[in-house]
Structures are given as C-alpha cells and as structure tokens.
Structure prediction request, 321 residues.
Amino acid sequence: MSALALRGPYWVTIRQHRRSLWVALALAALAVATLITSRLWSDSATEALRAAGCTYGDDRSCYDPVLVYTADQWFARHLVEYTALGMLVLPGLLGAFLAGPLIARELESGTYRLAWTQSVSPARWLAAKLAVPAALVVTVVPLLGLVFHWSWSTGPARDFPTYWYEPTMFASYGTVPVTNALLGLALGTAVGLLVRRTVLAMGVAALVTGVAVAALAWLRPGLWPADTLTGRELSLRVSDAWVLSNGMITSSGERVGWEYCSISAETERACMIGRGGVTDYADFHPSSHFWPLQLVESGIALALATLVLLVTFRVLRTRHP
Prediction:
C-alpha cells in the first residue's frame, strides 16, 4: 500500500514523520551496503591468497600473503559484527522513537486533540501511530536478516568464525530480530502513552526494551532441551555447538565443572581426576537447535508484545472513553 493510497491518521503519521522514515530506510540501506561490502571484501581476500598459491595457515614462505589475507578477513568480519550490534540495539531504538516523537510529543503538546476532533477515535489514532513503523519493521527487518545471513555465513566465517549462538549473531537473522523489533514497538507505545513527556519517554522506552530483550537472551539457553554427551574428546564432537556446561562425572554420578580446576591446561585434567572425575560430559545446543530456539523465543516476544498492546489500548479507552 503506497502513501498516496492511505487515508486519515495513517497518511497524517507518514506526512508528519516522513523525514524520520526516510532516515530509517537510509540506515537500512547502509546496513545492506555494509554487509555486501563485507562479503565482497572477504571474497577478494580469498582470491588474492589463492592467486599467490597460498592457503591460510601456510608456512613462512607465504607469510606476507597470509598476513594481508588475515587483515582483510578481520576487516570483513568487523563489518559484520558492527552490523550485528546495530541489529541488537534496533528494538530499543524503535521503542524510543515510537514512545517519544510519535506518541509522547503529541500528548505533551496537545496536538492529538485536533486529530480526535476529526472523526478519529483515540484507538484509531494510536493504531495508526503503531501501524506505520510496524509495517516498516515487517518489511525491512526480514530483508536485513536474509542479507546478514548471506554475508555472515559465506564471508569470513570459515577461517575467522563468529558463532550462531553469540548474542549479536543470534539476534541478527531468523525470526528473533523481527519479533524483538515488534516488542520494542509495543513497549514504546505503552511508555509513550503513560509517560507523555518526549525526552523522558524515549529514555524509559529504550531502557525497558533493553531489559526485555536482555531477559529473553538470558532465558535463551533453557528455551529448548539441551543435548548431553559423555566420553572423551568431546571438544571435537561439539565444536560448532553452544556449550552450556562441561566437566567430568564422578563414579557416584556427581558432576564437577571445569571451573573448579581452571589452573592451567596441563593440570586441569589431573585436578578433575583428583576430584573423582571418571569421564567427561558436556551439555550443549547443537547448530540444529538454532530454529527451535528462534521460534520459541519469537513466540514469547510476540506474546509479550500482544499483551502489552492489549493493556495499552485498555488504558487508552479508560483514560479517553
């Protein structure tokens, strides 16, 4: 639906905040350009190393080409990491924008009264304020996630990996970035309506959204049952996995974590055996758990967003029947 086809408060919202919307689209385009640059830079470094007849990890005869390759791949990796950091803080930014400039500013200045006298109900007015950025989120953020995954998984991740379970990576592709952004919009809507002061609402919304996203990340390890392995050479068997805990099991079945013996690499195993350790264990999420964890966390975020919006509209009806 184009802006020309919109009517009423939706059209007014776009007209009022068109500069901010253009800035948001420009930032999204910048993120896409950064990710494409990372991938092309990584490919160029790989081709240059191959043209020199070298591979990563070669002996000193390839010292200079490998050094250049390493520097280029780290630069490409940093571009991905910076973009991932932006995706991580996106919900807070969206919540602050919706709470402050879109809602609290109109409530603080009293300009909302004009809309409400033009056959626009309070609920429809608030729905328009929420719907416009929500449409932008569900359109742009999935695209960003797809480009991010393409750039990350096929770029410098082979020799200089960033792992799928790292907080910035996990929140940058899949369903979680979309639902976290929608949760930020819902919390921003609630804060803007309740605080009614532009600057204060922006700060509170960013803080509340940050706490909510951090809480979901803290709960993440337990959102899906972890796998357990026992035996020797476990590090080789769970190398691409998110290890939650590991150590040794005693003859009585008690678990002793490696943190109790973090003295030195040479003495750790002797220390664990001295504590009664018989065999190794590891609780972990394999890479196949990425989508179950994503979907469960996304479901929780959507449920929270729905609950917050229901309460918000109920408060609006109570205050402005």
User: Anything to note?
Assistant: The CA atoms of residues 164 and 290 lie 8 Å apart.
